[in-house]
Specification:
single chain; 4 helices; mainly alpha; 134 residues
Length: 134
């Protein structure tokens, strides 16, 4: 249990780095006039989605193992879970849009989604008593 909690705590930095890289790739590709989303942007989003999904699964395992009774879960943990689930759902949208939208529109929406995911992730972790340093 302690190993999973530690892994969940350290993996957040990989997720944050992948988020920053994906946002940088999306913003830097906004100057191109390609007809489809750049391949490097799709790879960056896929890496971010994979790491975020792993983080979510680790968090779900820790959550289930730590609190067997749902009534005794502190409210800040529920808020953390709700924000992370919303961020994960939002993160799936750009990959679904890639073939339906023009490249410029896809990049704008993806950049907006990445900013929203970053904000939700930051607020979700900051809401915990341990915060970013825990």
């Amino acid at each position: 249990m302690d190993f999973l909690l530690t892994l969940h705590g350290h993996n957040r930095w990989l997720v944050a780095a992948a988020w920053a890289a994906a946002l940088a790739v999306i913003l830097s590709s906004s100057r191109t006039t390609a007809a489809s989303p750049p391949r490097v942007a799709m790879i960056a989003l896929s890496v971010l989605l994979g790491l975020f999904t792993l983080q979510f699964l680790l968090g779900a395992i820790v959550f289930i193992q730590k609190w067997s009774g749902w009534a005794d879960v502190p409210h800040h943990r529920w808020e953390h879970v709700a924000m992370m689930v919303l961020a994960l759902v939002l993160l799936h949208l750009p990959l679904r849009w890639q073939k339906r939208l023009a490249a410029a529109r896809w990049r704008r929406r993806t950049a907006f989604i990445l900013v929203a995911v970053g904000l939700l992730g930051f607020l979700g972790v900051a809401r915990l008593p341990e915060g970013w340093l825990g």
